[in-house]
Automatic annotation (TrEMBL), chains A, B:
<keyword id="KW-0464">Manganese</keyword>
<dbReference type="Pfam" id="PF00180">
    <property type="entry name" value="Iso_dh"/>
</dbReference>
<comment type="similarity">
    <text>Belongs to the isocitrate and isopropylmalate dehydrogenases family.</text>
</comment>
<keyword id="KW-0520">NAD</keyword>
<comment type="subunit">
    <text>Homodimer.</text>
</comment>
<comment type="function">
    <text>Catalyzes the oxidation of 3-carboxy-2-hydroxy-4-methylpentanoate (3-isopropylmalate) to 3-carboxy-4-methyl-2-oxopentanoate. The product decarboxylates to 4-methyl-2 oxopentanoate.</text>
</comment>
<dbReference type="InterPro" id="IPR004429">
    <property type="entry name" value="Isopropylmalate_DH"/>
</dbReference>
<keyword id="KW-0560">Oxidoreductase</keyword>
<dbReference type="GO" id="GO:0009098">
    <property type="term" value="P:L-leucine biosynthetic process"/>
</dbReference>
<keyword id="KW-0479">Metal-binding</keyword>
<dbReference type="InterPro" id="IPR019818">
    <property type="entry name" value="IsoCit/isopropylmalate_DH_CS"/>
</dbReference>
<feature type="domain" description="Isopropylmalate dehydrogenase-like">
    <location>
        <begin position="5"/>
        <end position="354"/>
    </location>
</feature>
<keyword id="KW-0028">Amino-acid biosynthesis</keyword>
<protein>
    <recommendedName>
        <fullName>3-isopropylmalate dehydrogenase</fullName>
        <ecNumber>1.1.1.85</ecNumber>
    </recommendedName>
</protein>
<keyword id="KW-0100">Branched-chain amino acid biosynthesis</keyword>
<comment type="pathway">
    <text>Amino-acid biosynthesis; L-leucine biosynthesis; L-leucine from 3-methyl-2-oxobutanoate: step 3/4.</text>
</comment>
<dbReference type="GO" id="GO:0000287">
    <property type="term" value="F:magnesium ion binding"/>
</dbReference>
Amino acid sequence: SKSYTITLLPGDGIGPEVISVAKNALQLVASLEGIKFKFNEMPMGGAALDLTGVPLPEETLLSAKQSDAVLLGAIGGYKWDNNEKHLKPETGLLQLREGLKVFANLRPATVLPQLVDASTLKKEVAEGVDLMVVRELTGGIYFGKPRGFSTNENGDELGFNTEVYAAHEIDRIARVAFETARKRRGKLCSVDKANVLEASMLWRKRVTSLASEYPDVELSHMYVDNAAMQLVRNPKQFDTIVTNNIFGDILSDEASMITGSIGMLPSASLGESGPGLFEPIHGSAPDIAGQDKANPLATVLSAAMLLKYGLGEEKAALRIEAAVLDTLNRGFRTGDIHSAGLNLVGCKEMGEQVLKSI
Amino acid sequence: SKSYTITLLPGDGIGPEVISVAKNALQLVASLEGIKFKFNEMPMGGAALDLTGVPLPEETLLSAKQSDAVLLGAIGGYKWDNNEKHLKPETGLLQLREGLKVFANLRPATVLPQLVDASTLKKEVAEGVDLMVVRELTGGIYFGKPRGFSTNENGDELGFNTEVYAAHEIDRIARVAFETARKRRGKLCSVDKANVLEASMLWRKRVTSLASEYPDVELSHMYVDNAAMQLVRNPKQFDTIVTNNIFGDILSDEASMITGSIGMLPSASLGESGPGLFEPIHGSAPDIAGQDKANPLATVLSAAMLLKYGLGEEKAALRIEAAVLDTLNRGFRTGDIHSAGLNLVGCKEMGEQVLKSI
Ligand SMILES: CC(C)[C@H](C(=O)O)[C@@H](O)C(=O)O
Ligand SMILES: CC(C)[C@H](C(=O)O)[C@@H](O)C(=O)O
């Protein structure tokens, strides 16, 4: 029977609660599918800062690199918000992405029929939304150099960053996006600001030049400001979106909020080879941490993405996805997606119900 | 009687149609308020490219600089989309902003009770939204150097831009924002990505340090990805938002779409001194250009902002704003904001009705 090593990074806030639920789900499908998991739980983010003084200890990165896939809960919290840059939980996350070379961040935003009312968009606008943001994750302004602070001729302080893309970085994320679109509804929208930025002009040129290799995919281009509008106006027009690191950060969060249920949304970050990183798109929610109120389904669905994209265990992934839908159909809801007449449960109970559905 | 010179830049697409309506409105309030206007109509954008080979001819910039205020229609169109950078209509607009040193871009997003149904957001989420985005307009990644293309050690093509802010650039836009918030509901939200970008760290530091000078304004900070979400989740939480050039581009467009009526939204771009630049936030809409279908109200309201912020003619501005509301109350609607039972009119007829209301 197949055996995999999974690094678990519970992190901060609600992270440990949701990871514990997802771990149980993984364990159960494993036994049903004849898979074996070895779990390595490692510190990361604020938890690691408190324990070791750095947000991503070497042992954590090493364990992540040596495993078959990495499942992360959430990081960050008020406590570390004013830390210097190299001591921020967020810096640990960026180091992890860089260390694992996971350049392709897949962020689905789907409005489930069961949860269409959770959206702040009108029902007819929200229902049926099913899009995927493919965000470049290890380049652009997040990592570009030079960066830092300096002083100009007038003694004025400067803060600066570099938005930079190399052709090969654009090509590899574009290929992931074309292939993602091909497996979906065959429509790819590349988002940039090519009317102003040189980095975007190169982006558009490279994406355009790859299109001939994917004749079955319909490629379009959109400026980022327009994309931010179109997501509100008519999100159903989108199938797959591909964009750079910072635009992807903004647009994927906007898209996720359009679904109204960010407690439900998973993500996958993949490299050329090596382990992928899987995490819910929501944050560490320090305000409800430790209160058994968190919605674990985004992490459970991230575990499903781990099975599908990280390990190729498609059947086990489908089992988890089906179980989540079944749990919703049986009326169980955490507070963030609860509405009148449905069964309000906590994080643990939701986890139990998912196990039952599996 | 006071006399002002106004440079009119009709530009491309629907630009000339909407500028013509706004000019008539300005002329009528002028006669009622005992003001005199001299209008200089100059080419700009694609129209200027066709006529002179550049998107912002020297004479146009000179006229703009020497006038008391500048009213712009819209620029751009398919025809020039694939032009080289220095021959893009957009480049002319950036040169105009730079030339006039209009660093503060004010973009209101208001949901009028008459138009609440135009929003794709649920009524209870959209109604009462009244926010102002103060966007830095002459700095950041739009203008930062170095920028361009190069080749790295591996022969790989690079495209790069620089996001850079100097302390004084942040201070002056922050002051405009604090003062704007003070005249509104006293709440200012500064949006950045200070958990990742040094330019944002300096931004947050400077904005924070100015807060003590505005004790009557309640300052908060938000990351840009969260802001993109919060605008969808609960836009009413915002009063005044201040942010950099690129984040302002994205968030102000998102905010405007949340109102559902971007054909209604004006903007003002102001400098330390010298003429301001006023323009509707919508684009040149080439698909409906020349068909008498455009909504001229965003440009008419931009003319009201011109009177108020550009010339200090508060009373004349109020006349125009009141006339727009009265026209809506009398049931006139262009196609973009039309709904059953109301009076569908074209651009010209809408203009006539506004004059009647004035
Ligand atoms: C925490 C932060 C550094 C991170 C990012 O900006 O990438 C987060 O917003 C995300 O999208 O995963
Ligand atoms: C046309 C373009 C250069 C411009 C910008 O990005 O500033 C536009 O989107 C705007 O917001 O006025």
